[in-house]
Design a protein that fits this description.
Elements (H helix, E strand, L loop, with lengths): L4 H9 L17 E7 L3 H14 L4 E4 L15 E2 L9 H18 L10 E5 L2 H16 L5 E4 H7 L14 E5 L3 E2 L2 H14 L3 E3 L4 E7 L2 E7 L2 E10 L5 H6 L7 E13 L7 E4 L4 E5 L4 E12 L7 H14 L8 E12 L5 E4 L5 E5 L9 H14 L13 H4 L16
Parallel strand pairs: 1-2, 1-11, 2-8, 4-13, 11-18
Antiparallel strand pairs: 3-7, 4-6, 5-6, 9-10, 10-11, 12-15, 12-16, 13-14, 14-15, 17-18
Helix pairs in contact: 2-6, 2-9, 3-9
The structure holds flavin-adenine dinucleotide.
Subcellular location: Cytoplasm
Family: Belongs to the SoxB family.
Main location: cytoplasm
């Protein structure tokens, strides 16, 4: 079933009884050419592009829970391609270009909203760093504008420009950045992959990886053994646990990241604004709620819930940027598990184990990467060669010392 304005009208006239489920609920087959572990954004996008771009459809996506239950349905929906380093920049710009055509491509309303992402700066040194980043972006053909204090003030007059500790001097703006309705991305990719013959199997937990003479031959699951040609891991926060089933130890730690939503307010923040003197970012949803978050909780955990100390930290940073937030009530908060890599950058690569492929290390910025990650992982699986924008995301870079440390924090995952 194709979605269109006409189909909405016709279904409405018929009492909305003819809508079909967006994807099937198939029983697992005994064997697939490719099994993808993890029905999050990255796993589903990989399946979609495998089928659509490379004609590989004997594929299953195994999801232990339900589609959208992981980080793809828990993030704060921000997309951007404002990266400094050459290994990152072309990849995230590919993702941005895929976002720009995504809704037409998979025929699903994902509410892609390029409302702009503004990073504030608070000191001369930070302005210089942002100037460098903006120039690097422009050299790669990515849009970037450095705004002074007056320009930011005309956009966002309610910010605390004269805060004694963190006065706002200006900001780096990417107008093509913005937000996308996160769970619609999962649904759109799931529907698009299913329509092309991919089996999306929910409630199917991978509990073991079976190997024969070293090679991966299939997975043990809560619904029995399923054989495969290639096994592709896209388990985000659970990446280390799943890889360990094949005896692989990853350069990844799992940490919690929390998100918060306020009561509905009249529209007052057009785009995404990030605080440059701490970790805080905020946008306003179409329903009027402020959607915001801050730093990760900073300790290793597989629990999808966070701690009060970080709630306090996020509230402090938010109030330092927008004093009026002190009057706003928070409606709900939740946590997701981040696969924090040692240099803050992802891995899309083959592993040292035959037939085992890895997509992981997305830290707290993997939502924006979803289209390019799926596209590049599908390319690797289909062609046995990295896609040209993802050549730097190799697993062995940690051994070779070629880190992609966008934040310049060193090998400490909780700081990226
Ligand atoms: C609070 C929060 C805010 C964020 N904000 C942003 C943001 O604004 N912008 C941005 O770019 N990124 C953001 N992120 C990061 C982003 O959401 C993640 O990097 C990205 O979603 C991870 O990829 P995924 O969608 O495939 O993950 P997931 O949706 O987590 O998919 C992984 C799936 O694997 C499944 N799985 C795990 N183990 C198994 C198993 N053994 N068997 C079967 N299935 C298994 C899980 O159930 C899960 O559904 C945020 C994350 C959080 C939690």
């Amino acid at each position: 079933m194709r979605y269109s304005a006409l189909s909405i009208l016709m279904n409405g006239l018929r009492g909305n009884k003819a809508w079909k489920p967006a994807w099937r609920d198939p029983a697992p087959k005994p064997h697939y050419d490719i099994i993808i572990v993890g029905g999050g954004g990255h796993g589903l996008a990989t399946a979609y592009y495998l089928a659509k771009e490379f004609g590989i459809t004997n594929v299953a996506v195994l999801e232990k829970n339900y589609i959208g239950s992981g980080n793809v349905g828990r993030n704060t929906t921000i997309i951007r391609s404002n990266y400094l380093l050459p290994g990152n920049n072309p990849f995230y710009e590919l993702s941005m270009k895929l976002w720009e055509g995504l809704e037409q491509d998979f025929n699903f309303n994902a509410m892609v909203s390029q409302r702009g992402v503004l990073n504030l700066y608070h000191s001369d040194a930070q302005r210089d760093a942002y100037t460098r980043r903006g120039n690097a972006m422009r050299l790669h053909g990515v849009d970037a504008e450095l705004l002074d204090r007056a320009a930011v003030k005309s956009m966002l007059p309610f910010l605390d420009f004269d805060n004694a500790r963190f006065p706002i001097q200006g900001g780096l703006l990417q107008r093509r950045g913005g937000t996308v309705r996160h769970d619609a991305v999962a649904w759109g990719y799931a529907r698009g992959a299913d329509q092309r013959g991919v089996d999306i199997i929910q409630g199917c937990e991978v509990t073991g990886i079976r190997r024969d003479k070293g090679k991966v031959v299939g997975v043990e699951t809560s619904r029995g053994f399923i054989g495969c040609g290639k096994l592709a891991l896209a388990a985000a926060g659970n990446s280390s646990q799943v890889a360990a089933m094949a005896g692989l130890r990853l350069p990844i730690e799992s940490h919690v990241l929390q998100a918060f939503v306020s009561e509905g307010l009249k529209p007052f923040i057009d785009g995404v604004v990030t605080f440059g003197a701490g970790h805080f970012y905020v946008s306003q949803s179409d329903k009027g709620g402020l959607v915001f978050g801050g730093d990760i909780d900073g300790y290793n955990s597989y629990a999808q819930r966070g701690n009060l100390a970080t709630v306090e930290h996020v509230a402090e940073a938010g109030k330092a940027m927008i004093p009026a937030l002190s009057r706003v009530r928070v409606l709900r908060s939740w946590g997701g598990i981040m696969d924090m890599s040692m240099d803050g950058s992802p891995i899309i690569d083959r592993t040292s184990i035959d037939n085992l492929y890895l997509n992981a290390g997305w830290c707290y910025g993997g939502f924006k990467a979803t289209p390019a990650s799926g596209f590049c992982f599908a390319h690797l699986l289909a062609r046995e060669a990295p896609q040209e924008t993802a050549t730097a995301f190799r697993l062995d870079r940690f051994q070779r010392g070629y880190l992609i440390d966008e934040k310049g924090q060193g090998a400490q995952p909780n700081l990226h």
